[in-house]
Amino acid sequence: HNAEAPSLEQAFHRMAQMEPTLDHDVSWFVLPSNWAKMVVALISFLCFANSYDGDFVFDDSEAIINNKDLRAETPLGDLWYHDFWGSKLSSNTSHKSYRPLTVLTFRMNYLFAGGFYPVGFHVINIILHCTISVLMVDVFSILLGGLQFSNKGRRLNLAPKSSLLAALLFAVHPVHTECVAGIVGRADLLCALFFLLSFLGYCKAFRENKEGYTFSVFWVLVSVILGAIAMLCKEQGITILGLNAVFDTLVINKINLLELIRKLLYKDKSLENAGLLRKGLLFRITLLMCGGASILYIRWRIMGTGPPAFTEVDNPASFADSLFVRAINYNYYYSLNAWLLLCPWWLCFDWSMGCIPLIKSVSDWRIIALAALWFCLIGLICQALCSEDSHKRRILTLGLGFLIIPFLPASNLFFRVGFVIAERVIYLPSIGYCILFTYGFSLLSKQAKKKKILAVAVLGILLINVLRCALRSSQWRSEEQLFRSALSVCPLNAKVHYNVGKNLADKGNQSAAIKYYREAVRLNPKYVHAMNNLGNILKERNELHEAEELLSLAVQIQPDFAAAWMNLGIVQNSLRRFEEAEQSYWTAIKHRKKYPDCYYNLGRLYADLNRHIDALNAWRNATVLKPEHSLAWNNMIILLDNTGNLAQAEAVGREALELIPNDHSLMFSLANVLGKSQKYKESEALFLKAIKANPNAASYHGNLAVLYHRWGNLDLAKKHYEVSLKLDPMAPGTKENYNLLRRKLEQLQKKGG
Q: Which parts of the chain span the membrane according to its record (predicted)?
């Protein structure tokens, strides 16, 4: 029996090879399975390796740095009731993006690294993409070569050349850069990982025998669970259950869809012979449907019934009044997504805010893109349904299925999405593109006389894509490079100009930032965030009247914009219009209850008006809401000190230092109070600690000198007066005090003489 086993396996393999496969026509390399996977892993790593030491960029700030769900003090249970950005799902402002498992991996990154160090986050993303690309070798071998087994139960790879080519195309596709180099793309990577595992798990449910296939209910259920895990990483994951059903229908049951449709339409009694009820197909599809429905119901209950809150600038087509305009523009967006798969040269981190103007009439030349898309799709669908070649029908249907079905959640067909185009959502649909590309290559190879030239051309495409991935990855390493790279791709996108301006402002280049903020407002006259930031810069440059105009317009456009109300209050305070400023501050607090910075600025207003009790209450509110609000604590200490309430000032100072023990400005303020209370030793210790933390602060040395002067340590007083004057020759009062000390020292020397 053992001697006959190899010949039986070879015979089975020969029977399998009788079915046509792509590899017969494809002019490509043949590598052993493990070598093929190693090559794919290496090349996918080379594409994105230079992103490993990139910064946190764009959406990473909100999803990671500002997301409290990553911190150890947030209970793990909260992740299941918060959205991807850390907001409560029940909140009206929530985007309803429910991805708790992705957030959990971010939290693990944060805890293991001991803080927000981006290297660990980037490395995990690169590893995930390499792993997915390796899994693609197995997935494509099934999709392109079919699911067949040896007599020992081992799955046969009947398309080693085609599956390697398709996996390489996937691994090096530049449109994947956002998912890999952008840390927030972790959601798409994890979703894709469990998406593929669900598919492979479903394939594992089947075993081939003489009568056809037997199946394991256990593995079907495992596939459903893996699909649920994929959805908990990102919403697209649920679509794998539909694709598993398509695969079962076409590959396992070899059903001709056109024939099935005809029989359903004509109520043919031979419907059972079409395979619908054979081999447990109906039972498996019922399991998949029940599993999918249960997952969606549970998610809907957790998410709440309210739709996500998006604005017109996020997705202008979805807010168009005309159904015709909506339909035309949605289809135009689909054609642009298809173009990004075909020619991923023009890539942008954001495609909203005027980047793609709406098509409002059929005379717009861009209608040609829609016609081209549907011409190609209809042609492929006709071939997938009507071709007499069952092999061709299967590959084209699977290719179209993997291209279209994972894209459906982003299509605006079922619900409004918060973007126009997002490169990250093409990560899974690119599987279908790779299938269709590989099939097209096989057809060309079949017809071509010089197959090597065709193979070299495909190698050239792969090489260009590798270089494009490396270039795009380097652009994702920093916000400055990322935002500037978008200027040539989407010059009409107000958000691109806004982000370039914000990046410049953060680096202190206010003059250049103003230029980009003005352009953002010109492109989108209702862009309140650009108005707010521009108003802030103009306020700091003392251009108060223009700042007031911009901020007033911002709150007029968006009356609940709390930050703009607060900044308007600051400008009005500077213009000495105190009543209006107070009203603006309180309006800001009305729209954002927990607003410590606004309470701080309100306290400053009350202090200017000598309303000391109101000022102290406002600052106390700021510190209650934000215990580490150093400025509010400092102002309380200084106000109490200046009004002679030394005991209260000391108590507040000690309370503040308990909460913020390393804040040198609080040490300095409390040291001044203790000095006035003649607690010289403790005051000296705090002054010295503050100077150690900030040795170049002239006032710290000057006030320590005053303390020594009062205390009678005249030599030390002289030393610190001199250091203070060296750091700041114009320091108020220091020169006078120093001269007094010198006269006193001279008098003492004369007496001593």
A: 126-146, 181-200, 212-232, 238-261, 281-300, 367-386, 398-419, 425-444, 453-471
